[in-house]
Amino acid sequence: MTTVDQIKDRWPLSAMLARLNITVPTRGKFRSPFRADNTPSCEIWKEAIKDRSTGESYDSIRCFAEAKGMSNPEAIKHLAAELPGATTTVARALKREPKRELVLPPLHWNHRDAEKLAALRGIGIEGIHLAGAVLGTLRFGKVGGFDCWLLMDKSQKLAEARRMDGKPFPAAGTLSERKSHTLKGSMKSWPLGVAPPKVTVPPGMPCVGVEGGPDYLALCDILFHSKVEFVPFAMMGSSSAICANALPFFRGRKVIILGHPDEAGAQSAKRWDEQLMQAGAKPTARQLEGGDLNDLVKVHGAQAVAEGLKL
């Protein structure tokens, strides 16, 4: 029996969920505990949570990894250390763990698509240009046959797509209708933007974090108009903890978290604030009022929002 098998034997899905204080029904569909999920799209299937919207499957080890902000190998190493008298080495278990590879479509960047996206989201073209041409975190391409805008960074750990016409992706196979599509191989717990492809982030530069792709674009627009330089980043789901591998980046930095104006937003901002504090950062969690950041920029303009938030 391998170490992975021993872990799963010690921690069946029901026991792991109880350990993580995650409550889900044993029958029927429910909202994902690991990402923003407005329409219930998950169900229990063969000792795993099956997300019919993204196609992702979460066994007990993956549940532990997502809840703790770890990679699967890190979770295996942690859980293996708890096994009484484990005979298989952790190194062998890690060798057996398949590597997560991000699958990306052909991508491009051009000003015409940038202008379309700016109009779609109600964001200044300067912010779109900053994300795409300066930071390199925004690209365009086809996903599922649709023209899309995609966010990613050079970590190659996460990529998320949304349609250029603003419509949701239709249900297909096991995937239900959804506003955004997380590409295969993505790690939802990765803070997108901390590794921008085109620039080197200076040590000590402060960071500002938001939730979701549209708010990330709005934050880039704010950065363009701000008197203060900062690193914009985004968590792509309110349920995810920040990946443990990313936490060292924040050590010693001032970090502002701008949470969504609802209970889920407040809870996620608090969770990320606590994680960052333990990692040696200097975090401050704020809750937005009057709408999410994209809404505020669309209504008031990036410069006014930047001044209001004192960014």
Query: In which range does the helix fraction lie?
Result: 25-40%
Number of strands: 12
Q: Major β-sheet, in short? A: 5 strands, antiparallel
Strand order of the largest sheet: 4-5-6-7-8
Helix/strand structural class: alpha/beta
Number of helices: 12
Low-confidence stretches: 87-98
Beta-strand fraction estimate: 15-25%
Over the alpha carbons, how many angstroms does the gyration radius reach?
20 Å
Which key terms come to mind for this protein?
311 residues, alpha/beta, DNA Primase, Chain A, Dna Topoisomerase Vi A Subunit, Chain: A, domain 2, 4-stranded parallel sheet, 17% strand, globular
Molecular structure report:
There is one protein chain. The protein has helices at 3-10, 13-19, 60-68, 72-80, 90-96, 111-121, 125-135, 213-225, 247-250, 263-278, 293-300, 302-309, and strands at 42-44, 49-51, 57-58, 107-108, 138-143, 146-152, 159-163, 180-182, 207-211, 231-235, 254-259, 282-287. It is α/β, with parallel strands linked by helices and 311 residues long. The chain folds into two domains: 3-96, DNA Primase, Chain A (Alpha-Beta Complex), CATH 3.90.580; 107-309, 3-Layer(aba) Sandwich (Dna Topoisomerase Vi A Subunit, Chain: A, domain 2), CATH 3.40.1360. The strands form three sheets. Strands 4-5-6-7-8 form a five-stranded antiparallel β-sheet. Helix 6 packs across helix 7 and helix 8 packs across helix 12. The longest helix has 16 residues, at 263-278. The chain is globular.
